[in-house]
UniProtKB/TrEMBL annotation:
Classification via Gene3D superfamilies: Divalent-metal-dependent TIM barrel enzymes
Coiled coil start-end: none
InterPro entries for the chain: IolE/XylAMocC-like (IPR050312), Xyl_isomerase-like_sf (IPR036237), Xyl_isomerase-like_TIM-brl (IPR013022)
EC number: 4.2.1.44
Keyword presence, Lyase: yes
Protein's name according to its UniProt entry: Inosose dehydratase
Protein encoded by which gene: iolE_1
Length: 300
């Protein structure tokens, strides 16, 4: 039996049930997600896309409490690299999600940069590399967001490196961390996305440990990923091919990642997020059960 990872709080998310949108006929109903995530043995969840779960705090509290669940974070997307003109539309979204997140007694807001490539059509929306000015917009904008979210809602923002966004590779992630203030902004390290973009999660935790504020656990199928990279497949179709796979079949190994995180000596959420959009409604639960069992075998 692996040693106990007593600083790691394991949960799951709507993403692991094939949920990417607030409303989509291909997705399981929210009631089924809540029932099944509890049945699979998780005690923490994320809100997922705003509007998928009930947005009335009293109702949502009732729904999660009766299933012995708690909320760890909300999620937003933003394009702050475009400059101050993006602030108002970003804040409109943030204020809704942060208010619900706060009402659920969660402490984190996961912030995902906007995509430079359409994740369905592969249309190139923006250049994949930012200019110096855009980098400055991104870093100063994220710091402002972090400070205002903390001041108004008491939440910590954790920025999520993500495939097909401008914070993806090791080089981009390190540049972002080196250019931002840890008092305002830290990282949601998604092990699958970081591997998808060529990064080493254990190395990042060991090098920038004080900046790791939150974890998403997922794995990548190396063979599918090699073809995705070779043929420049966008993220959405790559997921439909199964590029994000059930652990422990892929990379990185999650045991060493969790051990490295435990050594940081702080409490960390580790939320399972196996991208599976779209997927058959009966597929997620057995995977979730096996994944929870696997993580227990790692000590989490």
């Amino acid at each position: 039996m692996a040693s106990a990872l007593d600083r790691i709080r394991v949960g799951s998310a709507p993403d692991s049930w094939g949920v990417w949108f607030p409303d989509d006929p291909q997705q399981v109903p929210w009631e089924r997600f809540l029932d099944e995530v509890a049945e699979a043995g998780y005690s923490w969840i994320e809100l997922g896309p705003y509007g998928y779960l009930p947005t009335d705090p009293a109702r949502l509290t009732d729904e999660v409490t009766k299933r012995n669940l708690k909320v760890s974070a909300g999620t937003i997307f933003c394009g702050l690299h475009r400059g101050p003109s993006e602030w108002d539309s970003t804040w409109e979204q943030v204020s809704r999600v942060a208010a619900l997140t706060q009402a659920m007694d969660a402490k984190h807001l996961v912030v995902i940069p906007s995509f430079w490539r359409d994740d369905k059509t592969a249309e190139i929306l923006e250049p994949p590399e930012l200019t110096t000015e855009q980098w400055r917009n991104l870093t100063t904008g994220m710091e402002r967001l972090g400070r205002e979210v903390k001041d108004r809602y008491g939440l910590d923002i954790v920025v999520h490196p993500h495939a097909d966004t401008h914070i993806d590779t090791e080089e981009h992630v390190e540049r972002f961390l080196d250019s931002t203030d840890s008092d305002a902004v830290n990282l949601c390290l998604d092990t699958g996305h970081y591997a998808y973009c060529g990064g080493d999660s254990v190395k990042l935790i060991e090098t920038y440990g004080e900046r790791i504020g939150y974890l998403h656990l997922k794995q990548v199928d190396p063979e599918i990923l090699a073809d995705v990279v070779k043929n420049e497949v966008p993220f959405g179709p790559a997921v439909a091919r199964g590029v994000m796979c059930e652990p422990p079949a892929g990379v990185p190994e999650l045991g060493p990642v969790l051990t490295a995180a435990q050594k940081l000596g702080v409490d960390l959420f580790a939320i399972v997020e196996q991208d599976m959009y779209p997927c058959e409604p009966d597929k997620p639960l057995p995977i979730a059960v096996r994944t929870r069992k696997f993580l227990r075998s790692c000590g989490a």
